[in-house]
Design a protein that fits this description.
The complex is a heterotrimer of chains A (about 280), B (about 325) and C (about 450). Chain A contains 14 helices and no strands. Chain A is mainly α. Chain A has one domain: MetI-like (MetI-like fold, Orthogonal Bundle). Chain C is of the alpha+beta class. Helices cover about 45% and strands about 15% of the residues of chain C. The chains are: A mainly alpha (about 280), B mainly alpha (about 325), C alpha+beta (about 450). Chains in contact: A-B, A-C, B-C.
């Protein structure tokens, strides 16, 4: 009995905790299917009948821009950010973890220090720069910084991971006349896969949800992301269509959930081996 | 850095048969420098153009009166003076933020650690739960979640109803200036996925042998937790703590989304960055906002430094000697 | 993922790597990213105008349609439109202004006019008006003045709005209160609310039903109250037009009505952000201070019993006035002011554009168009049109000139100040003093 309880108890506790934690999401899902008059006033979790028209309305999008387009825009930005971050952060991380250069300590310390930098400090000047370059109201301000390794968190993550990798393989390759670029590309990068996947997952999720930057840089509705569209959905429907709005919320999180489900098994692996012990 | 000695040795070894060791040595030195800069160049461009230069500009703006329209006008320390000595709302926002950090960070980390240990004890079947517990963190503090949150914590929402049923008649949280901030705290704590995953990774790195040995010595569950899990996990706790503290000082989106941007009711969720945003963007006092940003930067730096200093006494590194 | 740029490694430079990064980027991203700037530019001989506004879907659809018609009539001119929700639109515009990238044609709020004109973000339109590129002959002079700054015409009103009071006539009937006439007073209003509260009605969630929302934190309501007493919000661009005593009186009045349970509770007032979340929208109260343009939304949500009445007066002196619901201006850096002016004129004065736009921006400023469109109106839209006619006949004071730039900040401070009163964090007098201090600091800078 003791052993049975031991196996059974944690599962029960986990299941109960899960139910509580996922309740808001169940509420979101249920509300997205409620008829309009039940959304604000009804206190029941379940809708009296399933109002699928919330979804068909939501799919029409906002300001004549379809949800497909909005999702496409968001995917493009998030995809660009993922490629940018993985490439630029791993390049920088390789230098910090493996190469010798003047001021390496100072630069590394600076990189770590930027982890703490509130982005409000650089917001307005950055905006002015992108505006001077004529890049405002395009996706560039959202993607270009990722290709310049501005997210120190990921550089740091990959550095820590690379420091934990055995040097031997790389060293023997260097002895065989393999340059640092070959070593980076064909030896270190494949080994660092878990950290790169972790970077990719977090970049994707964070970029997808990053309402603030998108709000500042994107103006034209046809360039809107799904998050921005959601916001204007709330405000633009003068008799705010809450049902369709919650339906659109569900649509907007589906891609993240799918992305996460596909890659989640790498996540813990990546974290575990990232040498987080500093 | 240990890199120095290890990279040099094989280079020497590899070239012992080279008839011109001196020249190759020189080439080696040059080679060691420039590839590093090539690797670093995207980062360096980003650091200069998108971080250092904007920081300098905003430092300059913090000494000016700048409304976005007219050119900045130098006012010396006036922004700092007004902030520290004349603006009661500034200090209220500092207080609100401190309260938030002190409550939200331990709560979130406690939840993350608790759930991580629970997951570890599950053994098989952990994968499903791990993903499911991560679910809330995926959604971020988006518009939709803020609306869900408002509905759940409002009068007639699930949370006040449940509290009513157990005899706590607090009413809705959203319109109550004493409770509103805790709604934001709970939203933050609810999204404990990232520290949970990091804790889980840390827990999995602790060798099972340690627990077995302790169990043989007759140590109970609690004893094992205190003398094995806590010290072995302390670097991970520290890592999470630093990250969460830094993030929490900059909390913006959940309060912005729930209060509709005004930090209400009656400034009760007017966190530091929200106030900064209001001064800068709503009231067009960019100089003042820049000064606020710089003080925030300094405060975060100081607190991180203190955390690192104290960490020496409680963070235990198993591989103190280095790898 | 592309190979690292090995070919360039012998001549490494920051620019080379940036270029390589850009090449890598462009293989991932397609043509959608072509660097479009917010500012205007010429595309292959033609003229491209940018035009941005805020508003709901209906307004967006109508505006798009009108703009397409303009393009058809002006071959070679392309109009790139962009719209958003009000608060994010304002913020977006101010960051655009910071970078000098204001759109060619821009929809402005009344409060932005002096800031944008003073900051030289929008250009004076006097020459264009004089040349009759933009015709103003059918517009009300008083309304036109709302777009002026230091004697120059910087923006043109695109719609004419007025404050009012949406109320549930069924509840009023039940309480034995007649439909509010244009001369009803604040005392009448207070008494009506007490009568309604005394009915003992309950909201759907079982809470007491009150007479109205609490307008104490609403600067628009205060301004109407103040004007009814012969006062004004601003005496100039850097001076308040009211005193601590005025504000204390107003806040004490609202505060005591709320404490009596005659108007909505604090927690419901702080959450009111839209028709749905207002006390009347949540069926917690019988009325709501609002504007004419959103009124049809109330009947849509709550049914045909909701009607539109005037804001109360002091001794019959109405404080409401016709206010530009929004204005149009031309970005100071526009490369095509002539075409931009043509677009503005088209939107304001073309009969077909008027038919398309309808009342989506409140009453059109062009009298002929307003009268023409009004004939087609029905239901709540007809009601607000008739309301405006009634108020015009009743007699309203001239609108004030555009509020100073600090007004946006003062407006939020106003709301917050009254919240402190509602939650007992400050007395009406303390809060009034705080507000005036803060407002004066705002107006000085």
């Amino acid at each position: 009995m003791n052993i049975a309880t031991k196996r059974w108890l944690p599962h029960t506790v986990a299941a109960v905790c899960l139910l509580v934690l996922l309740y808001p999401l169940a509420w979101l899902l249920a509300t997205s299917l409620k008829p309009a008059d039940e959304v604000v006033t009804s206190l029941d979790l379940l809708p009296s009948h399933l109002e699928w028209s919330n979804y068909t309305t939501a799919l029409d999008g906002v300001s004549g821009v379809t949800v497909t387009r909005l999702l496409g825009n968001t995917l493009l930005i998030a995809g660009g950010a993922v490629v940018g971050n993985v490439l630029s952060c791993s390049l920088a991380a390789y230098a910090f973890a493996r190469l010798r250069f003047r001021m390496s300590k100072v630069m590394f310390a600076f990189m770590v220090a930027t982890l703490m930098l509130p982005h409000h400090v650089v917001l307005i000047p950055q905006y002015i720069i992108f505006n001077r370059l004529g890049l405002v109201d395009s996706f560039w301000p959202l993607i270009l910084p990722k290709f310049l390794a501005t997210e120190a968190f990921f550089v740091f993550l990959i550095v820590q991971f690379m420091r934990g990798l055995p040097r031997e393989l790389e060293e023997s390759a260097r002895i065989d006349g393999c340059g640092p670029f070959r070593a980076y590309w064909s030896i270190t990068l494949p080994l660092a896969r878990p950290a790169l996947i972790t970077t990719a997952i977090f970049t994707f999720i964070w970029t997808w949800n990053d309402f603030f930057t998108q709000m500042i840089y994107l103006f034209a509705p046809e360039k809107f992301t799904i998050t921005l569209a959601l916001r204007s959905f709330v405000d633009q429907s003068s008799t705010s269509a809450y049902g369709p709005m919650f339906a659109m919320s569900v649509i907007s999180v589906l891609p993240i959930v799918l992305f996460f489900l596909v890659f989640q098994r790498y996540l813990v692996q990546g974290m575990a081996t990232s040498g987080l012990k500093g | 850095m240990s890199t120095v000695s290890t990279t040099r040795a094989p280079a020497g070894v590899g070239r012992t048969t080279d008839p011109r060791p001196r020249k190759s040595e020189r080439r080696q030195v040059r080679e060691r420098q420039w590839p590093a800069y090539v690797f670093l160049s995207p980062w360096m461009i980003g650091a200069v153009v998108l971080t250092l230069a904007p920081m300098a500009v905003s430092l300059y703006l913090s000494f000016t009166d700048y409304n976005l329209f007219d050119p900045p006008h130098w006012v010396g320390l006036r922004n700092y003076q007004e902030m520290l000595f004349e603006d009661p709302r500034y200090w209220r926002s500092v207080g609100t933020t401190m309260l938030y950090v002190v409550v939200a960070v331990p709560l979130k980390l406690g939840l993350a650690l608790g759930v991580a240990m629970l997951l570890k004890s599950l053994g098989r079947g952990q994968g499903f739960y791990r993903s499911a517990f991560y679910g809330p963190s995926l959604l971020g503090a988006s518009m939709s979640i803020a609306l869900v949150w408002k509905a759940l914590f409002n009068d007639g929402g699930t949370v006040p109803d449940v509290l009513d049923a157990v005899g706590i008649h607090a009413g809705g949280w959203v319109g109550n200036p004493d409770l509103a901030v805790y709604g934001v705290v709970l939203l933050t704590a609810w999204q404990f996925g990232a520290p949970m995953v990091i804790f889980l990774a840390g827990l999995q790195q602790i060798s099972p042998d340690l627990y077995e040995a302790a169990a043989l010595d007759g140590a109970g569950r609690w004893r094992q937790f205190v003398s094995i899990t806590v010290p072995m996990l302390s670097p991970v706790v520290f890592f999470n703590l630093v990250l969460e503290v830094i993030n929490s000082f900059q909390v913006f989106t959940p309060a912005f989304a729930i209060s509709g941007g005004d930090g209400g009711p009656a400034d009760s969720t007017m966190f530091y960055t929200l106030y900064l945003y209001e001064r800068g963007f709503t009231a067009s006092h960019m100089g003042y906002a820049a000064a606020m940003a710089w003080l925030l930067l300094i405060a975060i730096g100081a607190i991180t430094l203190i955390l690192f200093r104290t960490s020496r006494s409680w963070v235990f590194y198993a591989d103190e000697e280095g790898r | 993922m592309p190979e690292p740029p090995n070919g360039r490694l012998h001549h490494p430079s920051r620019r080379a790597v940036l270029a390589a990064a850009a090449v890598g980027l462009s293989t991932v991203l397609t043509s959608t990213l072509s660097g479009c700037s917010a500012a205007s530019g010429s595309t292959s001989g033609g003229v491209t105008l940018t035009f941005s506004w805020w508003g709901n879907d209906d307004r967006a659809a109508r505006t798009e349609k009108a703009v397409r018609l303009f393009e058809k009539e002006h071959p070679g001119v392309t109009v790139r439109t962009s719209n958003g929700e009000f608060t994010s639109y304002l913020q977006k515009l101010s960051t655009q202004a910071a970078g000098g990238g204001i759109p060619d044609v821009v929809q402005l709020d009344y409060r932005q006019v002096s800031q944008y004109a003073g900051g030289e973000a929008i250009m004076p339109l006097d020459d264009l008006v004089k040349a009759r590129t933009i015709r103003t002959s059918e517009m009300d002079k008083g309304l036109l003045r709302t777009g002026t700054y230091q004697g120059g015409q910087y923006a043109l009103p695109m719609g004419r709005g007025i404050t009012g009071y949406a109320y549930d006539s069924a509840v009023y009937k039940k309480a034995g209160i007649p439909a509010p006439p244009p001369s009803w007073t604040w005392q009448d209003w207070g008494a009506a609310n007490k009568k309604i509260a005394a009915l003992g009605l309950k909201s759907p969630d079982g809470r007491p039903f009150t007479g109205s929302n609490d307008g104490g934190g609403n600067e628009d309501v205060f301004e109407t109250w103040l004007r009814g007493r012969g006062g004004k919000l601003y005496a100039g661009q850097s001076e308040l037009g009211f005193t601590e005593d005025d504000l204390t009186a107003f806040w004490s009045f609202c505060d005591s009505l709320r404490k009596d349970g005659a108007i909505a509770e604090a927690r419901d007032t702080v959450q009111a952000k839209s028709t749905e979340t207002s006390p009347i929208g949540r069926r917690l109260a019988a009325a709501d201070f609002t504007w004419d343009a959103p009124f049809p939304g109330y009947t849509g949500l709550l049914g045909e019993d909701i009607h539109f009445a005037p804001v109360p007066t002091t001794g019959g002196h109405q404080g409401s006035y016709f206010k530009p619901s929004m204005l149009l201006g031309i970005g100071a850096n526009s490369e095509h002011p002539e075409e931009a002016a043509q677009l503005i004129d088209f939107l304001l004065n073309d009969q077909r554009a008027g038919d398309i736009l309808g009342f989506s921006r409140s009453t059109p400023p062009n009298r002929k168009i307003a009268a023409r469109v009004a004939k087609t109106l029905q239901g709540p839209e007809r009601e607000i049109y008739d309301y405006a006619q009634t108020m015009e006949k009743y007699g309203l004071d001239d609108p004030p000139t555009a509020p100073p730039p600090g007004d946006l900040a003062i407006q939020t401070a106003f709301k917050r100040g009254y919240q402190r009163v509602m939650y007992g964090m400050a007395t009406p007098r303390q809060a009034a003093r705080e507000l005036i201090d803060e407002a004066n600091r705002e107006l000085r800078s």
